Amino acid sequence: MTEPLDILSASPFRIEVHPDDIIIGYMETEMDEITKEQIMAFRDIVEAKGGGRKMRVITVIRRFNVISTEGRDWSASVEGQKFTLANAIVVESVASRIGANFYVRFARHINPIRVFNDLPSAVKDPQREIICFNNFLFFPQMQRLRKVGCFL
Question: Is there a domain that residue 1 lies in?
Answer without folding.
Answer: no
